[in-house]
Amino acid sequence: MPADDKRLASWNAMMLNALTAAADIDPRFANRARGLFRSMRDDFYRAGSLVRFAGNAAVADAEFEDYAQVAEAFLNYGRKFASDDAIEFARLLTQRAHGRFLKKGRWQAKEKPLIPIAQGQWIIPDRVFYSPMTLWLRVALEVPGLDPTVRSSAATMLQRASQDMLDQPYFYGSFIMLRAENSS
Fold it and tell me: How far apart are CA 92 and CA 90, in angstroms?
């Protein structure tokens, strides 16, 4: 397997998700997932916050995408391997992201945007990967023990719809799928 020597939080989270999903196919994937989880927990999590670049936290602050990707990967890992530790990290990251990146009902990609008066986005569209907002919503709706205010906020966000979603559903596919999964 190729090594990721940049050690970016969101990329490692995607690999953890892949290894976790493949764990039933071959025990070597399960062993790699366990090792990667321990490494991510030790290298990317500092005093209740996430580090974007392991070993070089000063380069850039973690972004919303990092929090969403890592929280989802830790929740999936925790469920697959019955790791209360991973699930607790997912809960903590989800709550921290809510406080850091949701400003006046709109999501900011960074805690301190380049333009201080930037409003943020009500619904973040998908790009190459699922929207970090959708990943965050999925974890916020499912992770046990989440602050009830944060969970309520997530449930309210899931009901959002916009003209953009109707005009360009391709860019909101992950949000539309999550909304359909939770409509029953």
Answer: 6
pTM passes above 0.85: yes
Phi and psi dihedrals of 179, rounded to 5? -65, -40
Beta bridge partners of 61: 51
Cβ atoms of 120 and 166 within 8 Å: the answer is no
Q: pLDDT per residue over 23-76, tens digit each? A: 999 999 999 999 999 999 999 988 778 999 987 777 788 999 999 999 999 999
Bridge partners, residue 16, by sequence = none
Four-residue CA torsion sign, 74, 79, 82, 84: positive
Contact by Cβ (8 Å): 70, 10: yes
- DSSP state letter for 103: E
The C-alpha atoms of residue 78 and residue 101 are separated, in whole angstroms, by 24
Question: What are the φ/ψ torsions at residue 112 (nearest 5 degrees)?
Answer: -120, 95
